[in-house]
């Protein structure tokens, strides 16, 4: 290590080094003053660190004098470590003399800087989110993009001027592109609407991920939206159609339409009262339409009513269908009402279950689990003792006609979603209600279920309870498998981690899958993983992964976080 040797040290050493030689001292002082004049300080108030030709600038000290004032403490020398080339690291001893074996000439004018340790290898960059069908890095997925580009350019060239006749332009385009007259008008509108949505258009021309059907859905949804909310619509739709995950599924036209309807319910609910042709929505409500097909000799009955009336009618038909099937079983068995064997069976069942619960309590076993296992055993015994006779499945039309002819009143339950203490805004099966429908449904609500704490509930059994089912339906909206839009209420509730593999019965481990995709996952032909916010990742045997997002009314609340934004922190009361 170098001895730190400042200019003042050198000056004082030269004065005190030869006190014993009276004839050398005057000469030493003369040579020192001459050196002082010939080699001044590089900057007033700066010191030297002297070491065999090595000069390092230090920090400013004192007041620009060569010697500090008596009152001021002497500044500490600069601590600089260096490795000598061809010698040891300790180049001087306490008196500034090189140690034995050192070679001062080998390090004159040289300063060796220790090399920094090698930096850690950089972490691999995070993959940029993209839609699976519009993956720009996969040559096999370029067909979807090329088709969208070609169709967009075609319809963009066919856009008419404001004074041109729409029917004439649509007719020519329909014949040229082999489309119907209505499809041609919708395709033109799907291109024209992007001029009112600059942010969405900028995203589209970079990703080319919106085909004709999706563009047409956007145009239909924004047909009567006022200009004042179009910038907000542009921002929200662009955010919705921007990929946030790797290999994410593109929202379907149906999902886009539902999302726009949700936005209109928040921003401009008055537009929900109009039909696509601009007429009032009440003009087409509640009606019957008969259609006769003479080609095959059948007829069609179409019933148009409020959505809650149709859903109630559907539930009533289903219950009536079960009732008719039960009557058919009793007729086959020759039993008019509950048979004596069945009555004895149910009486013994209660006593048997009570014994099971008592044993479970003594053995510190979960009573719910023991009861469930006993129920399965009793059901298998009952099916074995009372085999169900095979009958033909009653057609729903038979149940519908029986419901009308017998005038049977059936109580049904419909699930709606809305803010606490407010009117319902969403009805099961994916319906965002209009203002009139919200008021009508508010009068029909006779039971309110709070789903706030449902995500924290964990059951000890396989089947979820009614509150968990309602929450999963409200979060998912549809079947979660890629490309499937079957309503959640018509799907199975599947455990992401199988229940037999210790998968818990809780919201974070359940999703809606239609029967076909449920069987596909159970068979191992598809694997699924779900995050805490409801985002699901599906993996197929060939290694392909596709990400889907929940589309229900509770999807936004399940993705909430505990942080606070800067804007919210700085917000002042109005």
TrEMBL record:
What keywords sit in the KW lines? Endonuclease, Hydrolase, Nuclease
Tell me which InterPro entries the record gives. Answer: HNH, HNH_nuc
Among its keywords, does the record have Hydrolase? yes
For this protein, the record's Gene3D superfamilies field holds: 1.10.30.50
- List GO molecular-function terms, semicolon-separated: endonuclease activity; nucleic acid binding; zinc ion binding
Protein's name according to its UniProt entry: HNH endonuclease
Please list the coiled coil stretches.
Answer: none
CDD domains attached here? HNHc (cd00085)
Query: Which residue intervals define the domain HNH nuclease in the entry?
Result: 467-519
């Amino acid at each position: 290590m170098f001895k730190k040797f400042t200019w003042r040290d050198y000056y004082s050493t030269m004065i005190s080094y030869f006190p014993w030689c009276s004839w050398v001292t005057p000469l030493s002082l003369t040579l020192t003053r001459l050196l002082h004049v010939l080699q001044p300080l590089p900057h007033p108030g700066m010191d030297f660190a002297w070491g065999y030709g090595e000069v390092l600038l230090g920090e400013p000290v004192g007041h620009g004098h060569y010697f500090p004032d008596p009152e001021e403490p002497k500044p500490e020398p600069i601590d600089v470590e260096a490795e000598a080339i061809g010698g040891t690291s300790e180049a001087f001893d306490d008196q500034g003399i090189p140690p034995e074996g050192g070679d001062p000439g080998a390090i004159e004018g040289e300063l060796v800087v220790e090399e920094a340790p090698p930096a850690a290898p950089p972490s691999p960059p995070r993959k940029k989110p993209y839609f699976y069908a519009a993956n720009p890095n996969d040559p096999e997925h370029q067909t979807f993009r090329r088709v969208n580009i070609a169709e967009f350019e075609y319809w963009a060239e066919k856009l008419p001027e404001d004074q041109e006749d729409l029917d004439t332009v649509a007719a020519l385009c329909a014949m040229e592109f082999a489309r119907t007259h209505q499809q041609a008008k919708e395709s033109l509108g799907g291109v024209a609407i992007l001029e009112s949505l600059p942010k969405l258009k900028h995203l589209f021309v970079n990703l080319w991920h919106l085909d004709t059907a999706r563009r047409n859905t956007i145009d239909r949804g924004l047909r009567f939206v006022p200009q004042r909310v179009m910038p907000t619509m542009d921002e929200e739709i662009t955010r919705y159609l921007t990929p946030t995950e790797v290999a994410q599924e593109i929202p379907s036209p149906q999902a886009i339409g539902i999302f726009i309807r949700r936005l209109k319910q928040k921003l401009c609910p008055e537009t929900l009262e109009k039909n696509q042709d601009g007429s009032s929505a009440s003009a087409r409500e509640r009606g019957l339409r008969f259609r006769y097909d003479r080609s095959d000799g059948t007829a069609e009955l179409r019933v148009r009513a409020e959505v809650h009336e149709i859903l109630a009618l559907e539930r009533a038909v289903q219950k009536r269908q079960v009732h008719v099937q039960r009557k058919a079983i009793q007729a086959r068995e020759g039993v008019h009402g509950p048979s004596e064997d069945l009555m004895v069976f149910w009486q013994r069942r209660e006593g048997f279950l009570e014994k099971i619960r008592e044993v479970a309590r003594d053995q510190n076993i979960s009573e719910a689990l023991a009861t469930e296992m006993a129920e399965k055993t009793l059901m298998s015994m009952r099916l074995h003792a009372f085999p169900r006779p095979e009958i033909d499945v009653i057609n729903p039309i038979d149940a519908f006609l029986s419901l009308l002819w017998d005038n049977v009143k059936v109580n049904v339950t419909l699930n709606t979603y809305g803010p606490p203490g407010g009117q319902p805004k969403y009805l099961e099966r994916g319906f965002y209600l209009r203002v009139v429908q919200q008021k009508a449904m508010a009068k029909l609500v006779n039971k309110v279920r709070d789903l706030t704490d449902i995500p924290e509930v964990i059951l000890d059994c396989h089947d979820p309870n009614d509150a968990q089912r309602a929450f999963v339906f409200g979060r998912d909206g549809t079947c979660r498998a890629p490309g499937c839009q079957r309503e959640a209420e018509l799907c199975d509730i599947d455990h992401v981690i199988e229940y037999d593999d210790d998968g818990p019965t809780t919201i974070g481990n359940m999703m809606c899958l239609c029967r076909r995709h449920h069987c596909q996952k159970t068979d191992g032909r598809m694997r699924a993983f779900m995050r805490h916010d409801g985002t699901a990742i599906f993996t197929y045997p060939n290694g392909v992964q596709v990400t889907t997002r929940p589309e229900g009314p509770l999807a936004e609340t399940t993705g909430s976080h505990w942080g606070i934004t800067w804007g919210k922190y700085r917000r002042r009361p109005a």
